[in-house]
Design brief:
With 382 residues, the protein is of the alpha+beta class. The protein is built from eleven helices and 16 strands. Strands 1-4-5-6-7-9-10-11 form an eight-stranded mixed β-sheet, with helices on one face. It has a six-stranded antiparallel β-sheet with strand order 12-2-3-14-15-16, with helices on one face. The longest helix is centred in the first third of the chain and has 19 residues, at 50-68.
Length: 382
């Protein structure tokens, strides 16, 4: 269901005020209907956002050619098509959901693969151009419990297509909220048992055809413990580089991957953990690269320093640190787009999860000075 944003000041305060403890925004959401199967879920998703999905797919096809060194869109679609049998083998229900999205949106399934798997498709062609799209992720222990949060930084032209996707429980898979895009299976989120997943993009030099990465996020969120989610990620046929932070209230793992490698690099010691868009493990770094103009090291240093100097006591304390404009525009909450770079990178959304209290929050757009919107698991049981 589409929700209009409430009106808000165009010049938000630089620091949170007491009035911002409760969000003045609403966020676009779509909730699947309990009892329907994955094909019907996908079809409803595609029908609801048909024209938006078509527009976003076109943007990402064009960007894949421009950035990913493909010769033309048909070549992109040919490679995207090769990912469909991998997804079918990896998780048949998510494969059915993706096909349903394509049917509802009246586009070919490979175009939905491009929409979902855009960052990894770019890595498949040698000579891909540089960019600075990324995310900043953190895990902290607070007085309220275990908290995860992340910004989602991407080409700013993706911002109008952000939504929160609600998936009811089905079979042995718990209900979940995921930060997503129209036409996308999900990018980060938390399930009703308190398992959360955050991600960072890593640019691999050994990329290959693999599982569509949002499907891996959804599959990890179908588990009931961080340990089970860790196994899902480390055993999956990944195609390119990502960092996956999987956690529950008691356990957490940071996992870096490339096209051919995967490695657990952190397991809740120390409890405060930050990751951006460069590898922390030398083995994974050896088959990865970082754009020369990337802000990843600056964001990593700023967020690490902020958490060390002001350890969050509450979940919302982490939110405001993720929303920081220190060092703007190369800040944790960033905006590197310009009139000359209309597809430049910016913070397009963020998600915050209190795993101990089963609380999840999200917001679309540049989040500086804006409180997040709360999402209830009760809404997924209706």
């Amino acid at each position: 269901m589409w929700q209009r944003r409430a009106s808000r000041s165009s010049r938000p305060p630089s620091k949170p005020s007491p009035s911002l403890e409760r969000s003045q925004d609403v966020m676009r959401t779509f909730v699947y209907r309990p009892g329907d199967g994955p094909r019907a879920w996908g079809r409803a998703h595609g029908e609801q956002w048909r024209y938006e999905i078509q527009a976003l797919a076109e943007i990402r096809e064009w960007l894949t050619v421009q950035i990913g060194a493909f010769d033309h869109v048909e070549q992109v679609l040919e490679v995207a098509r090769e990912h469909l049998p991998v997804l079918q083998r990896f998780d048949p229900p998510l494969y059915e959901e993706l096909l349903g999205i394509a049917e509802g949106a009246d586009v070919e399934p490979e175009r939905i693969v491009v929409l979902n798997h855009y960052t990894d498709l770019r890595d498949l062609k040698p000579g891909a151009k540089w960019d600075d799209e990324g995310c900043s992720v953190a895990h902290v222990l607070t007085e309220e419990g275990t908290v995860l949060g992340q910004t989602w930084d991407m080409h700013i032209s993706a911002l109008p297509y952000v939504l929160m996707l609600g998936i009811p429980a089905t079979g042995d898979r718990p209900a979940m909220w995921t930060l997503s895009l129209v036409g996308c299976l999900g990018m980060a989120g938390m399930n009703a048992t308190g398992v959360g997943v955050c991600i960072n993009n890593l640019r691999s030099l050994d990329a290959r055809v693999g599982v569509v990465w949002p499907a891996l996020v959804r599959r990890a969120l179908a588990t009931k413990s961080a340990e089970e989610a860790r196994r899902v990620v480390t055993e999956a046929p990944v195609g390119s580089g990502h960092h996956y932070l999987v956690a529950d209230p008691e356990q957490a793992f940071g996992i870096e991957t490339s096209g051919t490698h995967r490695k657990v690099i952190w397991s809740r010691t120390p409890p405060t953990y930050v990751h951006t868009n460069h590898c922390l493990d030398d083995e994974i770094a050896a088959c990865s690269t970082v754009a020369p103009e990337s802000s990843t090291h600056e964001r990593y240093d700023r967020l690490s320093r902020a958490l060390a100097e002001n350890p969050p006591r509450r979940a919302l304390d982490l939110w405001w640190q993720l929303a920081s404009h220190e060092g703007y525009p190369r800040s944790v909450c960033s905006n590197l787009s310009t009139p000359e770079r209309p597809h430049g990178s910016a913070t397009c959304s963020a998600v915050l999860m209190n795993l101990s209290r089963r609380e999840v929050y999200g917001l679309d757009g540049i989040i500086h000075g804006r409180a997040p919107v709360a999402f209830s698991f009760e809404a997924l049981a209706a």
